């Protein structure tokens, strides 16, 4: 069934609190799967959707289904089945974000490998939405701890993947436990016969949607990706700008808010940049495009909607600062370079949790995307020196320097200085605002530091490196942070295994966390800049008074190694 593509989320009749959350996140317009799925799901229809990973399926079912929740009834009304714990967590976090303005909303994530007592507490508290993997959901059904009699909707996400992993029988068992009149939405990248049979048996007159993806990318574009770790994306982009030979660059982000912020930060770092987003008027858009065509602008930071129809031959590089939602968008993005037979470069920033989307892009485009190393401090220094030497060569070849030669000769005789001393002083004056060898003030920003971080983390297995200390971080309940957000941020940024992150306590404006005492200074400095929920950690070592102070309020999280953490903390004081 083909539906007209709508240009705004406001056109889709989702509940105002959800629309507010979407606008706050900064999404500009619904993707094809969202525009076609939301209306029938709002109308209570069953849905059979064929779409690749990363097409925006979560919002496609979450926004309409959350719009119809009865928050006064704290029992499962929506059940989402996912093939893996990673996808289950991803879906649950997205739904939590969309539901941020729904008062009293609760969601439970049920998957294997997690302490079941935690899951039992969530279910006893009362939840409106359950997201889980088939095996763990079956476990709860057998225990009698998951009740589905009041369920209104079931979502099967990535059904073909559940088939491939051998879960399809469990899926059928779960569906058999749901009420007969419930709504069902089934999403799958492919439609093998087994999935068709599930749909025929459990879906009632479903609306069928198929989102086609392009399967070829521009052959003149070299594609690379950088695994986001340690270094911030902004610092990584800055290093790329330092060493890549580019005429003009198009940087893609997901939201108009991020587009404005990134362009401003690039301008502050000395790069000529501008924004193209849904907030930009048509006259300003045309002026921006004319500037980059004429060479008066080097970088455009754009959202997907705003970059439609952009055709500028000067664009030699496309940076996917935020990974796109779907493969078709990726193809469209990198098609902005390599125009008219010219060679282009496309670079994709990928976090560890986005690796599945990277593989989907490679599969859909039938082209490998090669990993890349972000330039090091030494690479940047070498590049600046080469460029400086080239400027000298070009000046000697292109300019009439007779007047300056006489001036320097006279100055040399007057001051009794060598030409080497004079040349060095002039070189300093030219480059003092941009030193040829950048200062190593923040070694944690150097990609080479990732190795040091890794070695430090590896040493934690040694008895002499297991003492723990209590740290304070400036993010708390009022920032809507959860312990898992803190664990994820610290673990990912400094390659620290979660088992070395001890007890976390949340307070209104700050939190405390036990971390290894042997943390190197560069790692500590880097963690100061790490953001959780948009808030800098600004980590600091707790003072003696803070460690001994009796804080009121119950701890929101007790780490797996609470006793270990306290024991090592005490050992550190001896």
UniProtKB/TrEMBL annotation:
UniProt GO molecular function: ATP binding; ATP hydrolysis activity; RNA helicase activity; RNA strand annealing activity
Biased composition regions of type Basic residues, renumbered to the chain: 549-574
Keyword ATP-binding: yes
One Gene Ontology cellular component annotation held by this UniProt entry: cytosol
Record key words, sorted: ATP-binding, Cytoplasm, Helicase, Hydrolase, Nucleotide-binding, RNA-binding, Stress response
E.C. no: 3.6.4.13
Intervals of motif Q motif: 7-35
Catalysed transformations (reactions): ATP + H2O = ADP + phosphate + H(+)
Subcellular localization(s) per the UniProt record: Cytoplasm
Domain DEAD-box RNA helicase Q, chain residue ranges per copy: 7-35
Enzyme class: hydrolase
Entry annotated with the keyword Nucleotide-binding: yes
Domain Helicase ATP-binding stretches: 38-209
Domain Helicase C-terminal: start-end pairs: 233-380
Superkingdom of origin: Bacteria
A Pfam short name: DEAD
GO terms for biological process, alphabetical: cellular response to cold; ribosomal large subunit assembly; RNA catabolic process
Positions of region (Disordered): 541-574
Signal sequence residues: none
Family to which the UniProt record says this protein belongs: Belongs to the DEAD box helicase family. DeaD/CsdA subfamily.
Function description: DEAD-box RNA helicase involved in various cellular processes at low temperature, including ribosome biogenesis, mRNA degradation and translation initiation.
Protein name (database record): ATP-dependent RNA helicase DeaD
UniProt organism field: Acaryochloris marina (strain MBIC 11017)
Lineage of the organism: Bacteria, Bacillati, Cyanobacteriota, Cyanophyceae, Acaryochloridales
């Amino acid at each position: 069934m083909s539906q007209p593509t709508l240009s705004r989320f406001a056109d889709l009749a989702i509940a105002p609190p959800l629309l507010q959350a979407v606008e706050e996140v900064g999404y500009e317009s619904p993707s094809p799967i969202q525009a076609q799925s939301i209306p029938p799901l709002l109308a209570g229809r069953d849905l059979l959707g064929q779409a690749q990973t990363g097409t925006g399926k979560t919002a496609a079912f979450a926004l309409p289904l959350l719009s119809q929740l009865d928050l006064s009834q704290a029992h499962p009304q929506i059940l989402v089945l996912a093939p893996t714990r990673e996808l289950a967590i991803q879906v649950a976090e997205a739904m939590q974000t969309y539901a941020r303005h729904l008062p009293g909303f609760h969601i439970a994530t049920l998957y294997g490998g997690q302490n079941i007592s935690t899951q039992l507490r969530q279910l006893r508290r009362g939840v409106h939405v359950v997201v889980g993997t088939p095996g763990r959901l079956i476990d709860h059904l057998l225990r009698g701890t998951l009740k589905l009699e009041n369920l209104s909707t079931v979502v099967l996400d990535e059904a073909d993947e559940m088939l491939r992993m051998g879960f399809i029988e469990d899926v059928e068992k779960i569906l058999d436990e749901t009420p007969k009149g419930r709504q069902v939405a089934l999403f799958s990248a492919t439609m093998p016969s087994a999935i068709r049979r599930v749909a025929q048996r459990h879906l009632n007159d479903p609306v069928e949607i198929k989102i086609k993806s392009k399967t070829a990318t521009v052959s003149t574009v070299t594609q690379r990706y950088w695994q986001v770790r340690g270094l911030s994306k902004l610092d990584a982009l800055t290093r790329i700008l330092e060493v890549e030979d580019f005429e003009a660059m198009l940087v893609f982000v997901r939201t108009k808010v991020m587009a404005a912020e990134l362009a401003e930060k690039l301008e502050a770092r000395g790069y000529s940049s501008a924004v193209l987003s849904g907030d930009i008027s048509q006259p300003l858009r045309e002026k921006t495009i004319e500037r980059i065509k004429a060479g008066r602008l080097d970088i455009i930071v754009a959202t997907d909607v705003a970059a439609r129809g952009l055709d500028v031959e000067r664009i030699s590089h496309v940076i996917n600062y935020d990974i796109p939602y779907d493969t078709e968008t990726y193809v469209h993005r990198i098609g902005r370079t390599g125009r008219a037979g010219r060679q282009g470069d496309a670079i994709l920033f990928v976090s560890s949790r986005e690796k599945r989307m990277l593989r989907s892009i490679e599969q859909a485009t039938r082209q490998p995307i090669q990993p890349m190393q972000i330039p090091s401090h030494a690479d940047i220094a070498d590049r600046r020196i080469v460029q400086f030497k080239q400027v000298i060569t070009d000046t000697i070849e292109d300019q009439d320097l007779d007047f300056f030669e006489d001036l320097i000769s006279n100055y040399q005789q007057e001051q009794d200085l060598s030409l080497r001393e004079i040349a060095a002083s002039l070189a300093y004056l030219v480059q003092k605002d941009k030193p040829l060898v950048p200062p190593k003030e923040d070694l944690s920003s150097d990609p080479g530091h990732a190795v040091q971080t890794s070695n430090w983390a590896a040493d934690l297995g040694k008895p002499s490196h297991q003492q723990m200390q209590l740290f304070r971080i400036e993010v708390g309940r009022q920032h809507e942070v959860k312990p898992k957000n803190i664990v994820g941020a610290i673990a990912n940024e400094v390659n620290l295994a979660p088992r070395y992150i001890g007890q976390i306590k949340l307070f209104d404006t700050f939190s405390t966390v036990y971390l290894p005492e042997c943390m190197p200074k560069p790692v500590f400095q880097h963690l100061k800049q790490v953001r959780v929920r948009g808030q800098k950690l600004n980590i600091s070592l707790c003072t003696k008074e803070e460690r001994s102070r009796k804080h009121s309020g119950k701890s929101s999280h007790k780490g797996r190694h609470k006793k270990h953490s306290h024991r090592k903390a005490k050992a550190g004081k001896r």
